[in-house]
Amino acid sequence: MLTPAAPRPVAVDAALDRRLRAMPKVELHVHLEGALDADAVWAMARRNGVPLPADTAEGWRDFYAFRDFDHFLRVYTAAAGTMRTAADWAFMAETFVAGQAAQHVRYTEAFLSASFMVGGPVPEPDLLDALADGVAAGEARHGARVRFIPDVARHLPDTQRAVLEFATRGHARGLFLGLGLGGPEVGWPPELFRETYAEAGRRGLRLVAHAGETVGAGSVRGAVEALGAERIGHGIRCIEDAAVVTLLRELRVPLEVCPTSNYHLGVAAAGRPHPIRALVDAGLTCTVNADDPGMFGTTLTDEYRLLAAQGFGWEELWQLNRNALDVAFLSDAERAAERARWDAWAAETAATA
Ligand code: ADE
Ligand code: ZN
Known about the structure:
Layout: H1 14-22, E1 25-31, H2 38-48, H3 57-62, H4 69-80, H5 86-102, E2 105-113, H6 124-142, E3 145-153, H7 160-172, E4 178-182, H8 194-202, E5 206-211, H9 217-225, E6 231-234, H10 242-251, E7 255-257, H11 259-264, H12 276-281, E8 286-288, H13 293-296, H14 300-309, H15 314-327, H16 332-352
Parallel strand pairs: 1-2, 2-3, 3-4, 4-5, 5-6, 6-7, 7-8
Helix pairs in contact: 1-14, 5-6, 7-8
The structure holds adenine (ADE) and zinc ion.
C-alpha cells in the first residue's frame, strides 16, 4: 500500500465546473457521521461533555490527517461517540439534507453507523423519530430527499442482529432502505455476516456492503456470493482479479466509487489517476460518491471535479451521475419522475451552452 496523500484541490474548465455544480445529482454512498467536519464534531463533543483525543479544536483538526484505515477508524469512532442525544441526530440529519440540496443532490442514500447506535444513549424510538423529523424538515425546507441504510461495523459482529432489528423497524417506517456493512475489512470477511444478510433479504431489505477497499477482490466476491450485496461500496480492488470483474459485470453489480476517500486512506496510489478509469473501461457500472465528506474535506461536486481533472469529459461524468439514478433504491415511478426532470435540465443546459 502506498503512502496516503490528500489530493490537492483541482482546477477544471470554468464552463464544465458550472455544469458540474448545477447538475441534478444522486448520491449513494455517504456516511451521515462522516459528513460532519472536525469543527462540527468538536462543537458536539463540547456540548455533550464528551472527551476527544485532543485538548484543543486545532489539535482535533490535526488528528484528521489520515495515515491509513486504522487511524481513520479511530477518528471516526471518536467522532461517532460525540453524538449523544436525539436532538443531535435531528440536527445532523437536517443539516445534511441542506448540504446535499445546496449541491443539487436531489436524492441521497446515506449510511448510519448503526453498530455504534444500538444500545447507545438514545432510545431507539427517539432515534428513529429524530432522524425522521430531521429529514422531513430538511426536505420541506430544502427540497432534497434522504433515506438511510444502517450499517454493521465489521469489527463489532456481535451487534449484527441488533442492527438488523433496527434496520427492519426503520424500514417499516419508510425511513431506512436496507442493510449495509462497513468498518475494517482486514480480518472481518463478509462470510461472518451471511446469516444476518440472508434474514435481511427475507425481510425485504435492500443489501449493500463495503468491500474491495482495504482487502482485494476476494472480499468483493464474498460480498456478492455470501451476502447477496446488490451494490458494492468502493469495490475498486475487484480490478485485481479478472474473474471478479467478470462476475460483477455479468451480475450487473454496481460500484459506489469514492475517489477522494481512496486517496486519503491509501487505497488509491497518490499522484496516479484513480482506478475508476479502468473499472469504467472494463464495462462496470460505476457511481461517484463522497463517502465521508466532512472528514475528507470533499463534496460530491468535488469528486466530479477530481475526475474531470483526470480526463473525464462532460458526457462521461453525466453518465456516471445517471448511473447513480439508475441503480438507486427508488421505485420505478420515482425513478421515472426524476429522470424526466434530469432530461429537462440537460436539454435546457444544452440549449444555453
Ligand atoms: N465507514 C465510514 N467510512 C468508511 C469506509 N471508507 N470504509 C469502511 N467503513 C467506513
Ligand atoms: Zn463508506
